[in-house]
Design goal:
Layout: E1 5-8, E2 13-18, E3 31-34, E4 51-53, H1 55-60, E5 72-75, E6 83-85, E7 93-94, E8 98-103, H2 110-118, H3 120-129, H4 140-145, E9 147-150, H5 153-193, E10 205-206, E11 209-210, E12 214-217, E13 222-226, E14 235-236, E15 242-245, E16 255-256, H6 259-263, E17 268-269, E18 274-277, E19 285-287, E20 292-294, E21 298-303, H7 308-322, H8 336-340, E22 343-346, H9 349-388
Parallel strand pairs: 3-7, 15-20
Antiparallel strand pairs: 1-9, 2-8, 3-4, 5-6, 5-8, 10-11, 12-22, 13-21, 14-16, 15-16, 17-20, 18-19, 18-21
Helix pairs in contact: 5-7, 5-9
Length: 394
């Protein structure tokens, strides 16, 4: 450790900025616009469901706000403390709640800084300088003055390479998950959108739909629970109580201990519930493996007959296809009543059951891959402080 030096982030970065403070114009296509909700639980950007901005808006941005390979993004408002390493060049922009760091690679390996920002020590440092109550914020001034321990550049390279091996395996499993999800989505579209389901050749069309199918509202076949964020005094980051989610991924390390939110079914998503974002933007989806407390940006859904896989892909097809964003002056949002009254074309129970069985097999493989990601992440995170603290020499 004698060769390690404590330095401020501003002293090992060429620039530290954030996203444009003016609300960007939105378009149906163009340059992806990233919000904190697009940062997944493995610290990667999910580009599958983003808003977009025009090319000319991107062109007008200052170069320090245009992500480059080896830049680091870091959430600084609300769900602060989520770093992302930009591993390849791709045009995108991001909201002002996200900071962008451009390390000076002559003295600092971007990967090393990224892994340092993943440590609990760095998160606690951010927590200590965050200000505000409703939406705690790490200011750029505070971020620039936060410190990291920096060994010689050769040691940085070796440490980052060791940790990167874990991330390479994690990324392979993520690719498997995307392939499986796409296969299930294609099967849903073939059966229920293109109407090329088993036996379609011999099925009559009545009133414009296959015989035995009917239009139903969501309330007719699903249960919906809306989240509500607890008061700030009920949060903790000491693994006490139930995990708190305010987006479809796991954001931060917050837990909730309070009778209203830890025992009331009106605030809890049970294991295997479908998480559905009801604001900013509406329609992002995930499935929770554990019992969690859900914030006001989420709803939790279960199929009344237990056809969870069918419900998941039905919602995914509808919201990806129609880009429903609800109403709201500040945030795109949708109310519980609006959600329950959405109408869908629903197939016969036998066909739904058959699809659900096939899709569930794929979903089980996805869950297994996700578990491998969890184990690899846990192993990496156990090694992380030992390498970053100089406890293990490389």
């Amino acid at each position: 450790m004698s060769e390690w030096k404590k330095v401020k982030l501003k002293d090992c970065c060429l620039s530290i900025s954030d996203g444009d403070h003016l609300p960007p114009p939105k378009t149906n296509n163009g340059i992806p616009f990233i919000t904190i909700s697009n940062i997944d639980s493995t610290n990667h950007i999910d580009f599958s469901d983003t808003l977009f901005v025009p090319q000319d808006y991107y062109d007008r941005l200052d170069s320090i706000r245009k992500p480059q390979e080896k830049d680091i993004l870091y959430s600084v408002v609300g769900s602060f403390g989520k770093p992302v390493l930009v591993k390849e060049y791709k045009k995108f922009v991001f909201q002002r709640h996200i900071a962008i760091l451009r390390p000076n690679n002559d003295i600092a390996d971007s990967r090393f800084i990224y892994y340092t920002m993943l440590t609990r020590d760095f998160y606690m440092q951010a927590d200590s300088v965050a200000i505000g109550a409703a939406q705690r914020t790490v200011s750029l001034t505070a971020l620039r003055s936060m410190t990291i321990n920096l060994p010689p550049i050769s040691s940085q390279h070796r440490i980052a390479t060791i940790l990167s091996r874990y991330d390479s395996l994690i990324e392979n499993y993520q690719k498997q998950i995307k392939l499986l999800e796409e296969a299930a989505r294609r099967l849903y579209k073939e059966w229920f959108v293109d109407l090329r389901f088993p036996g379609h050749e011999n099925t009559k069309i009545v009133d414009g739909m296959p015989e035995g199918w009917e239009k139903k509202k969501l309330v007719d076949f699903a249960n919906v629970i809306m989240g509500q964020s607890p008061k700030s005094e009920f949060y903790n980051n000491e693994n006490k109580g139930l995990p708190f989610h305010q987006g479809v991924g796991s954001y931060g390390n917050r837990f909730v201990v309070d009778d209203t939110y830890s025992t009331s079914y009106t605030r809890i998503a049970e294991p295997h519930s479908i998480l559905f974002s009801v604001r900013a933007p509406v329609g992002r989806l995930n499935i929770t493996k554990n019992k969690i407390v859900i914030g006001r940006g989420l709803s939790a859904m279960t199929h009344l007959q237990g056809y969870q896989s069918f419900l998941f892909y039905l919602l995914k097809e509808r919201f990806f296809k129609d880009n429903i964003i609800g109403n709201g002056a500040i945030f795109a949002s949708i109310t519980k009543d609006e959600l329950l009254n959405l109408e869908f074309l629903i197939a016969s129970d036998d066909l739904i059951r058959r699809f659900n069985s096939l899709a569930k097999n794929m979903d089980d493989e996805i869950m297994n891959a996700d578990e491998q990601i969890r184990l690899l992440t846990k192993a990496r995170d156990r090694l992380l402080p030992k390498l970053m603290g100089g406890e293990i020499k490389v």
